[in-house]
Fold:
Amino acid sequence: MQTEIVRESPLVGVQDLLAKTPSRLHAQVRIEEMPFFELNNIRGNSNSPEFVQAIGDILGVALPAQPNTVSVGAKHVLWWLGPNEWLAQSLADTPATLEAALRGKFGAQFATSVDVSSGYTTLRLSGVHARDVLQKGCPLDLHPSVFADGQCAQSCFFKAGVTLRPQADGAWIVIVRRSFADYAVRMMLDAAHEFYAAHEFYL
Structure:
């Protein structure tokens, strides 16, 4: 007997709330999920030419060596998480193949890759008040003069741990643990309420 695998978004409980926001208000704040993006936690030595080469060969993107920066390729983004730790994120819903490909490429190197896709989800906040919504619950200074496209940081949004990166168009990519995703979105909607209410819409 064959068992069908069904993938379910961690936002299944708030999809109706998200759908209540009329499209005419998306210019103010829009919260979207980018579900099932592949996420891999990578550890290795950035001073090792073999490690750096392996990353480039598999991901097609340079390893970011500067703290709190990202490297963006055609299919993947690499987020700097620590001196020997990165997060590889696909830019589309793809099969989970990176872990095996990277481990095979690493060979005997002191490096590893672990697929963490099922433990997180990716959100995209856009609109003129996207930063305002995040700033209500995030202690970091999110002003573009200090936190801009090409950078990333680990922080919190109210009580949920998040990893953030701003984009050139003013949108924000937010990676949140699956168990906190529902909570994070509800808090985002609550934080966005004043901007919706200003346009005569109430959640």
Remarks:
- DSSP finds five helices and ten strands in the chain.
